[in-house]
Amino acid sequence: MKLGILALASAAFLAGTAANAATLDVVKERGELRCGVSQGVLGFSAPNDKGEWSGFDIDFCRAVAAATLGNPDKVKYVPLSTKERFTALQSGEVDLLSRQTTWTLSRDSDLGMSFVGVNYYDGQAFMVRNDLGVKSVKELSGASVCTETGTTTEQNMADYFSSNNIQYQVIAFEKPDQTIQAFNTARCDVYSTDASALYAQRLTLNDPDRFVVLPEVISKEPLGPAVRQGDEQWFKVVRWTLFAMIEAEELGITKENATKMQESGNIGQKRFLGIDNEAGKALGLGPTWAFQAISAVGNYGEVFEKHLGEDSALKIDRGLNKLWSQGGLMYAPPAR
């Protein structure tokens, strides 16, 4: 999903030094983190009827706010479409993009942004109505496919269908709610996006049991938070907040036991939580920055299970998103 790369690169250039100021200092002075999120994807980032945001991506914003400001609630959530998200980050409208965004070469090099890491290993999949009688993506010849503009989805489909000599028609929309509504009202045969989003959107359909996600995954979609290029300190603050959530799970530190571990944990746990450890100074943070983040939102596994896994409505298996020690890909450098 190559979206106006030259235009976006120009926008990044024109944003100039103002947008690339010392973001940590700006956030501290403002007393608020501005976090770019989706316009509403169940499990990842969505507001309730009171306008209160929650989700996997929301909790990452809260963790960064806790690490930097000492308060996970000091966040302004800025809902962004797939088309708006990069410009909002480049221009300085948001300090951080935490919005189901795939890490690609062009985005990492041409758009004035840097991915801090991967917080969800995903892949593109396809959802169909059961009555279509389709069991495989390779049976979709002649189908119409709903998807969103400004994503990697369109290019992935073009490559896959061309390689398999499958004829298809794309019906593209700017916003997720437009896309799912079109699929829900049978304007298209198939809905294609990241598998995680399909599981979330399926629950918003009329009679979800009438729909099935096909088994094939046709792409690599490493999703992760991103910041503007040009501010190395802020990049490291956000990256190490992500690493801290992963490391905390490996160390057995949770939202509930973090305070106790500060007092009675082993030397590695205490060091991680800021006891006799000045590593945070290099980031411009206090010694207990990791404790602040974990005690506010929990470790990576807790956040995953709460919003996406067994404790959620989605009940997505962690799969590749398990810790490396459990057969997954989640791995963090030592936080010391």
Q: Helix tally? A: 13
What would you report as the Rg, rounded to the nearest angstrom? 20 Å
Read across the widest sheet, the strand sequence of neighbours is 10-9-11-8-12
Shape: globular
Q: Helix share of residues?
A: 25-40%
- Counting DSSP E segments of at least 2 residues, the number of strands comes to 14
Low-confidence stretches: 1-20
H/E element order: HHEEEHEHEHEEEEHEHEHEEEHHHHH
What does this structure look like?
The protein has 13 helices and 14 strands. It has helices at residues 5-19, 23-30, 56-69, 85-91, 105-110, 153-163, 176-184, 195-202, 232-251, 258-264, 267-272, 289-297, 300-307; strands at residues 33-37, 46-47, 53-54, 75-79, 96-97, 113-115, 120-122, 124-129, 143-148, 168-173, 190-194, 211-213, 221-223, 226-228. A 5-stranded mixed sheet has the order 10-9-11-8-12. A 3-stranded parallel sheet has the order 4-1-5. Strand 2 (46-47) and strand 3 (53-54) form a beta hairpin. Helix 1 packs parallel to helix 4 (85-91), helix 3 (56-69) packs across helix 9 (232-251) and helix 3 (56-69) packs antiparallel against helix 12.
What's a concise summary of this model?
By secondary structure, this protein is α/β, with parallel strands linked by helices. It has helices at residues 5-19, 23-30, 56-69, 85-91, 105-110, 153-163, 176-184, 195-202, 232-251, 258-264, 267-272, 289-297, 300-307, and strands at 33-37, 46-47, 53-54, 75-79, 96-97, 113-115, 120-122, 124-129, 143-148, 168-173, 190-194, 211-213, 221-223, 226-228.
Topology:
Elements: H1 5-19, H2 23-30, E1 33-37, E2 46-47, E3 53-54, H3 56-69, E4 75-79, H4 85-91, E5 96-97, H5 105-110, E6 113-115, E7 120-122, E8 124-129, E9 143-148, H6 153-163, E10 168-173, H7 176-184, E11 190-194, H8 195-202, E12 211-213, E13 221-223, E14 226-228, H9 232-251, H10 258-264, H11 267-272, H12 289-297, H13 300-307
Helix pairs in contact: 1-4, 3-9, 3-12
